[in-house]
Amino acid sequence: MAIEGVQPSAARQLLLQHTLLPLISIHLTLNADALFQTECNDTLISTLLVLRPYGNNARYSVPNQSYRIANLQLITRTYGLFPVRFDAPLPELLTVHNLAEDKKGEIAPLFSISSLEQLLKHASANSRTDLYSDMFRKVLTSNRILLFDTLNHPVAHIFVVDYATDSVETVRQLLVEFRNFAFPRYFQISDVLFHAFVAFDSRIVAETEVRRFQEELRTALSVGSSALPMFLGVDSDPLKVRMSKLVDMTIQEQVQHLSLQHTAEDNESIHVPKLLDMTLRLKIYEFLSKVLIPYMEQKIRVWDDLVLLPKKSITGRLFSVSRKFFNNNNNDVTASGTSPNTFNHQDNYYYRSSPEQVIRKLADWSLMLKDFKYAYSTYDLIKKDYTNDKAWVYVASTQELCIISLLLAQTQPLASDTLPLIPDRNTLRKIRHDIIEPYMDNLTYTFKLRFNVKTYAIRSYLIVAELLLNMSSMFSIPWWWDDLIEGYFLKAATDIDAHLISSGAVSGPHVLRAIIYERIGYAKAIAYYVPLEAADLLQPVLKEGVCVQVPEEVEEGGYENSAKIMPQNDNCISGRTRFRKSAMWYLMALWEWRDLDNPHQVLRLLQNLKIRFNVDEVTKNWYDRQGMALESLKSFCLPANREQAS
Amino acid sequence: MSSYYFTIIGTRDNPLYELEFSSFKAPASLIPGESHFTAKVKELLPFIANSSLDLVEDSQWLTPNFNLGRIDSFGGIWVNAFVTQGNVKFILCYDNPNSNNSLDNGISSGGSTKYDESSMKHFFNDAYDLYVKALLNPFYGANDPLVSPDFDYKIKIVAKKYL
């Protein structure tokens, strides 16, 4: 009788696999594209589409995969996965998102709420599964290049070239084109790692020749490279691996994909030859573990030495204090943006080489390398500078990441087989009252009222609620966060409602509301106010639902009290669970699904009420009275029930 | 004008008695005491009362009083509770006329208005007296519905007096 829903730990993983990871932009030549199309036998695909799924190396791993990451204290930890995102080249991303929107200090919305609603409505039409993970993933996945965070600024730029047709000159040309692009002033091109994937037809070209080409690339252009043999055993092994095209697609991309439905039968997947699949996994693993991670580690060390430590030092502090108090006469310089090391109030950004922007990048990269504690302390440090400069959007974004890094640090396993320790009362009190509550109030005020971008606030509500839920269930301490979690989910739902109604997209029930109510129901259902060591007490209720205990058999001739009221099996945990509250929220979600005329979702969700209510038949209990909410839902489901039974 | 939903809930979450009414203190409507809950809210009220039992069971061990005060709210509906010695719960749900939150337009958190907690406490105490008297009836079994018209009439009198 388990309650179905996305596990809080899975939601934490989604966050790590879709937001807090390095972005790698892929720049390819037409010839390389053609090579991939020939090998995959599909003229409609691009190399980026093939490479994209391999960023998720939790799913597409190599045997005995391990990534060793050393932090600044030179403590090395090994991780089983290190996801990355492959995306289009930066100039393309910047062009698509229309930089003009961000130019006058205004921030464009992170995603379109009505598009998300449309997508989920489409997905729910025939789905019998929980859509929360889809929604959460879509909210998290964004390739928008933001001025106030560097999470979406590419860490590496990979050129994919064809050995047979492309030369060193081609790579040079691509490199020059990239370098000459008019990047925004907040983007630092010198931090990007350039690398090349040299694809070659292994049937014609020997690997030694490719090595020579790689050596030329290194000496002429200082670009490292990896050889990518293609057509390995293509005749002998016809096996193909099916990959989804929809991986890591943003909301806009997926809406576009839906509206441009091609005539092909299987439009949502590509078929990669088995040996190419193995090669790509291996090469990407090698690139990440031998090139990207060491590069990021080295950069972090350099920034820490050159920018962060001087700032923390006593002279650095004196300098910043003097700048704060004696910097009143150069407002005109700042406003015109001619002084690169100060905040540009007119266009609302820090210049790429300013210490604030570098430190922000240092914190973001530490987060990507899973050094959450260091990231938190860095965000906390830089937040003060942003506040002094009145760079409100930077403050809001940094506050969000302070909360995220703090909660991730608290729930990070100490070792691969050691769970983190439960924080003490004082720490929990400080986390809640001094960090989460004031920061969330502040950042949502900034996003909603100062910049009128609700979507950032909605994303923050959802992420923080999920991380709190994860912490709550991991340590079994729901009494610390239960009300906060419900509050943040509700605020997200309210903001979505307000937007959909004001934009005229939806006026009645909508899928997003149903999904969020369902999530609140799940959060309540797993809020066990029982200490971890007494978790066994929950088992009878989770196994059989709440029911009356059977009286012990009386010996023959003994007295039997027929009027005795037998206790229920939840007697010892009475008041320690929130199953009834959960049922209420599920009921609200069910109503939305019913009003959306979706019997499949109603039928699925009804099963989550089983702990408290009998949902399999219409009973004579109070909740099945004529005209009551549950009775109307059961009768709504009857046709679907019959259909499923048949 | 405030509307109220009063229910007595037995030890197995079964409602023993239910009453919907509106405040008699506010200007009279066409039918005095008629509740103004919408059809959607009416459908949900028993579930709101039921869902608050989790919090009643949690907070009943934190106070020596039978009256637990305001323990819950859901979409603009506030919930006050009272626990008897026999673990029967009295739940009073009432709407918040000053709040914009409504179950009809999605739920949000927040909203506040002043309610006289002491009058609710008096109402619960008097209702408890009536319940104990009903319980003393030898023909009444524990956890049975309270269907006596006399009990219903007296509860309405108490409601009129205090709410």
TrEMBL record, chain A:
GO terms for cellular component: TRAPPIII protein complex. InterPro entries: TRAPP_III_complex_Trs85. Pfam families: TRAPPC-Trs85. This is Trafficking protein particle complex III-specific subunit 85. It comes from Australozyma saopauloensis.
UniProtKB/TrEMBL annotation, chain B:
GO terms for cellular component: cytoplasm. It holds the Pfam family Sedlin_N. One of its GO terms (biological process) is endoplasmic reticulum to Golgi vesicle-mediated transport. It comes from the Eukaryota. PANTHER family: TRAFFICKING PROTEIN PARTICLE COMPLEX SUBUNIT 2. This is Uncharacterized protein.
